[in-house]
Fold this sequence. Notes:
387 residues, alpha/beta, 14 helices, 11 strands, globular
Amino acid sequence: MSLPRIALDAMGGDEGLRVMVEGAALALARNPQLSFLMAGDEPLVAAAIAGYPGLSERTLIRHAPDVVSGDERPTQALRRARTTSMGLAIDAVKTGEAGAAVSAGNTGALMAMAKLSLRTLPGIDRPALAALVPTLGDHDLVMLDLGANTACDARNLVQFAIMGAAYARIVNGLASPRVRLLNIGSEESKGTDDLRDAAAVLKDVDGALALTFDGFTEADKLNRGDIDVVVTDGFSGNIALKAMEGAARFVADLLRRSFSSSLRSKFGFLISRPATELLRHHLDPNNHNGALFVGLNGIVVKSHGGASALGVAHAIEITARLLEENLTTRIAADLADVGAEKINSPVRASQRHAQDVAAAAKREADTSAITGSAASPANSPYAEPDA
């Protein structure tokens, strides 16, 4: 049985039409169940897919005279949504002509259009941008939010964790993903009130969902392979992701420079080439391409603007898997299992502290009533023992 159509913003990205068409053709060759709706300049799209007979038979073209530029403000793009390839690709999801949309265009514009057109799932305040990050483990790390929301409260972080776990169960085939919150330390006392509040809620709902909450983690642990989902606000997440990408490029460039520094180094490169090729493949962003706007009432995937045809194919394949596994339905079911009251009313860290102080005072008063005297430091259970 064929999957629902995948709408492609055929004109978005650094290279636009050529890469999107080649990527779609590659994905179709791997999965013949795929079919597409390509939004873009109809004569150009028709000419581009004519060289791929199988693709042209499985593609519906939707004419879009305009393209969202890479530096265009989201507010400007929204006003032109009905005439742009990006806007029409998203609209196809809204009307049911397509089950999901993929674009390599302007991230801010894509987020704004998708949120306005599709809205968020019931129980979700804000969608988040989730991506796959390479690790030393058996599968990639699901990381969110990566820039959709620069500031998040505890409720947002809890929602992100639930959505990220559902995503990890599908894309990595995990029964109970290990979830952690990104923090400046792993100790429970570290971080902002919102982080500690979110942690308290996730501990409470751990048994109600197919996830395992493992507390906090620091950024230097993200690629080790012992975390399946890491949750943070979009500001910190975007910085952490770009720092990792920069470190990967630094290592690759350093190896390249080292191996070309002398004749002996070049000989060493020939010997170690299998290992360096494995490293290159593992760090190639095209093998991890495809970030999901999770939490929308529909599936929208962001392909990297500079992705190759292989990267576009990877993004399409992830999209197809999310359609096949009904991601939005799974997230809605998880939210219902937890209950809106637990998610939307986290007890703030300051309130918990006040509650702890009040409970301690009550215990002290009860002790005084029983013994007939005030509990002094000497008879307090927390007093140091006599020497």
